[in-house]
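Reviewers of the previous submission asked for a worked example of the structure-prediction workflow described in the proposal, so we include one complete record here. The input consisted solely of the amino acid sequence. No template or homolog information was supplied to the procedure at any stage.
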Amino acid sequence: MLAIQFLPGSNSYPLPIHLSLSFDTGGIHVAESELTVGSLFVGRGEKTFGTQQVSVSGRQVALPVFLINGREPGPTLAVTAGIHAAEYAGIAAALELGRSLSPQALRGQVIIAPVANTAGFRARSIYVCPLDGVNLNRVFPGNPEGGATEQLAHWLFRNVIRQANYYVDLHGGDLIEALIPFTIYHRSGNEEVDRASIEMAKIFGIHYVVRSETKGSTYSAAAHAGIPGILAESGGQGIWRPEDVALHTDGLNRLMCHLGMLAGPSPEPVPCTLLNQFIWQRSEHEGFWYPKISVGDSVQERQDLGAVLDFQGHVLQTVSSPAAGRVLFLVSSLAINQGDPLLAVGA
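From that input alone, the workflow returned the following structure tokens.
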């Protein structure tokens, strides 16, 4: 018989005792006492940091990883950042958590990949992985036989995300994106997973919670694998202000207290606004972007939001709001390419 313990402050989901054995538990994840990611490993009550060399399309990519294996058993939380490599507030928060979290204070295990797209981070690349120009957050769970970005996604999913009971992906506005903080969860159709993901979002503590059905994202791949997960957005435009980083670190600490991984009372869910649509507007032309609204503005359906112009000021495209809602992110670049995002409305 498998013994299940409910840790103080945990939610209604049972947290498995971590045993040094591996077997089919009827869908309940049982982690081993030794935490392993690739060639990195750490025993109970220990912590390590290392760089994992991952082979993608014949090239070696270095991926930094923190492993924190708590003194007491509990759930496994996976945290990634830098999937979009110039979204710095999330990266700074993941680094802060990896540096500061003590295994002596932890029940369970935490895996942190703070810069998942290292090639993009060094290149200060927006949106895509420069290994092949593909958006890493559109190809999960990856493909070991695909291109370089698909192979990287496959390694991250198999070695980091798939080990978790709960998953958080830290993001923010890219180098040319301003945004208001929000959290996204994926509607997978699995009611139990979706309910747990929404609960995670409410506990994380950001006011706006967005339901998304974006395929190929980290959190959607996690949800379809039966792992509750969220993507948290804070910060942007190449800036990592302390208050933007703190939204991420505070959210992670709140979540770990809620799951019984850290001592202390379970925090109350933050009152939130649930947005059922996440509607992106993209440019149909190469040109110059002139928005007429600001990030965070409340907009009405069919409201004029801006225009894309050519060199002589001729209007190439007018952009109107697809629904009544709030502008969650806004591209702040004058230069716009065909297919580039311009903004998104949450409704």
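DSSP finds six helices and 22 strands in the chain. We consider this example representative of the routine output the project will generate in years two and three.
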